[in-house]
Automatic annotation (TrEMBL):
Keywords: Cell membrane, G-protein coupled receptor, Membrane, Olfaction, Receptor, Sensory transduction, Transducer, Transmembrane, Transmembrane helix. This is Olfactory receptor. Putative odorant or sperm cell receptor. It comes from Ursus maritimus. Belongs to the G-protein coupled receptor 1 family.
Amino acid sequence: MGSFGTNISSTTSFTLTGFPEMEGLQPWLAALLLLLYAISILGNILILFIIKEEQSLHQPMYYFLSLLSVNDLGVSFSTLPTVLAALCFHAPETAFDACLTQMFFIHFFSWTESGILLAMSFDRYVAIRNPLSYSSVLTDIRVAHMSISITIRSFCMVFPLPFLLKRLPFCKANVLTHSYCLHPDLIRLPCGDTTINSMYGLFIVISAFGVDSVLILLSYVLILRSVLAIASQKERLKTLNTCVSHICAVLIFYLPMVSVSMVHRFGKYAPEYVHKFMSLIYLFVPPMLNPIIYSIKTKEIRKRLYKMFLKPKL
C-alpha cells in the first residue's frame, strides 16, 4: 500500500447502489423519483417565471424565494444524472472525479439553502418589526450582497471536501450506499486516516446548519414578541400568516436533515434501506414541496397561476 498522502488510484470509479433489497419494486421507485423530479423542476421554473413576470412580486421576500427556487433546481440537477443512470438505465458506475464533483454540488446547494432560509427569516423579522422601514432596510443592493455572501460562504465551506478526499488511499470495495455521492458515504471507503475529514465535516455542519438554525429560531422568538405586542387578535393572526410559508420551508428542510444525521449516528443497526429513504427524503422532498407551499400560501402567485391555467380562454 502506498503512503498515506498518496491516493492508490486503482480507484477510478465508484459503484452507486439503488435499492437491491427491493429489486421487484425498482421500476415503481424509479417512476416515483422521476415524478418527484418533474414536480420539482417544473414547480421551481414556474415560480421563477411568475416572479419575473409579476411586477408586484419584485420585492425582497420574492427575490429570496427566487434564490431558493434556483437553489432547489441545483439540488435536483445535481442528483438527477446518477439517479437516472443507476435506477433507470442500470449503469451504476461513476468516475472518481465525477463523483467528487457531484458530492461538491450536492453539499454546496444544501448549505446554500440553509443560508437562504436564514436570510428569509431576517426578511420576515424586518417586515414585521419595522414595516415602515422595510424597503429602506432591505434594498435591492443589500439583498444582492446577502445573496452573494450566502453563495461565497457555501463555496468556501464545501471547496476543501474533494481535496481532503483525494489525498487519501482508496483500497476497499468502492461501493456507495446511495445512487448519488455524499461526503458521509465517501469517507467510509478510504484505507487511510479520515479523522481530518470527519472533524472538518462536523465543523462545517455545526458552523452552518447549527448556527443558521439557532439564528432562525432566534428570529422567530423576536417575531413572536413583536406579534404579541399587536393589540388586535385578527391583526396578530394576519401577521403570523405571512410567516407560514417560510416556517413550512424551514421544517421540511431541517427535519429530514436532522433525521438523516440521527439515523447515521444512532441507527447503525437499522436496515440499509432506512438510511437510503431518509437521504432521499432530505434531497427530494424540499425542492418538490417549496414551490407547492409558496404557490398555495402566496396570493399573488395563486392569482397568476389561475390566470395561466384555470381562466377560460375567450
